[in-house]
Amino acid sequence: MHHPEQGESEARERVIAVARQLFSEHGYQAVTLRDIGQALGIRHTSLYHHFPQGKEELFVEVTARRMGVYRQGLEAAIQQAGSDWRDCLHAAALWLLDQPAMHLGRMLQADMSQISAEAAMKLKEIIFASLLQPLNAVLRVALADNPEKLQRSLTIAGMFYSLIEGIDNLPASYVKGTKQELVEVVLDVFINGLK
Amino acid sequence: MHHPEQGESEARERVIAVARQLFSEHGYQAVTLRDIGQALGIRHTSLYHHFPQGKEELFVEVTARRMGVYRQGLEAAIQQAGSDWRDCLHAAALWLLDQPAMHLGRMLQADMSQISAEAAMKLKEIIFASLLQPLNAVLRVALADNPEKLQRSLTIAGMFYSLIEGIDNLPASYVKGTKQELVEVVLDVFINGLK
DNA sequence: GTCTATATGTTGATAGAC
DNA sequence: GTCTATCAACATATAGAC
Question: Which residue from A105, A114, A139 is facing B105, i.e. has the nearest CB?
Fold first, then answer.
């Protein structure tokens, strides 16, 4: 038996699950409250019972949870990969590509502009903490004997995500091969450079 | 004297200039025809005189032209940089960062989903041709003695843009230093890898 | 927790005068 | 080329019944 406490009724959890799927796939502006209600089989006005402040409140909650999933998944994948940082990068990359597309570019460049400045700031903090920190731990090992790059490890962690994200953006008409093959190419350049 | 031909009256050019600025900064959905009209000092309905098919037609025209500017600018920057491919990559990166933000992630992940499939396909072709091909010429030189990577040069060109784009996405609170310093870090890793 | 009814605003688009 | 007038569609949101 589970006594639901504040803000975690079952109906509310269903709302969050559906909203997460829709928001993460199509973005903040493209998903309407009617879309979410329809996917749940209820009227969109009923959503205000669970999220009195409306669409933005729902989006913030959903996105913060999504980032928690990323953080946990990344940490688990990295820890399971062992002690070789190359294996860790590999595991993180493959885990990310196994998830539904993150759409980091859209989130940072579109969604964050369409919500209030306060909500955007809060979410950006969560997004970067969730993604950068797990990878930073790996990179601190990888860059241990390179003090110059070591102090830029967060920047380099950001590069990692830009590269993984970019794999989904490249059109199949321009690049041949599966995503897994592309991961090999991308990580090869990331680790070894162009030569 | 200049006899304006089909589709290049002065008023039409003014519309395109304003729409380009607004669309490239805020994206397709966030910019309304009223916004564009207001910036021009005219009513939004007057825009239909120049673009009878409405917002999408205007966006396609504007985006296609923007990509032409990128292609020309990149080719000029690369050619001016000389024969060392490292200098060429540097010049291309600095030229891109000197431009207004490209918002490639938003374009590919949000804007392209909000227009018709035909328009999206046409624009994607133009985008990738304009960006990938100038850089591919540089990379074919850089990778000349590495046949494995050479056949992946278009993928690697895509990586270059993901990395440059990512510089604008990293929040100042997480990374210290100017954009120019970040370019150095990013290109160092791109060229030499992590070690 | 969900409903109906409704308020209120915004959007892209068309028709036709000047 | 630009205007006015107008439209249908859709958005978020509120109030109150069940």
Answer: A105
